[in-house]
Amino acid sequence: MLIIYGSALCVDCRNCKNNFDKFGIEYEERDILSSLKNLKSFLMYRDNRHEIFDRLIKIHDIGIPCIVDSQTDECFTDWESYLLKLGYKDLVYEQNAKACSLDHKGC
User: How high is the pLDDT of residue 48?
Assistant: First the structure.
């Protein structure tokens, strides 16, 4: 089972979940803003998976959505490449959604 750590406030998290729903990929959602337990679990990945998160932290990115395979403990943030690798195309994105960066140029 895939676990998606994220927030409903994050457009990239919403796009990830919308595409997983579209292609029938099962997941468990863990909102990091609604539960300290979820936030702590996410931060354990972010603080210990340097190969994934160091680059994101340097550019002041939170690192969500963070997807974890609960069976293998594999962790990744590039949900688009994951779907493309599985052969899914025609990804959907929210139109006119505001970016979540402070300068509103990206997430």
Answer: 97
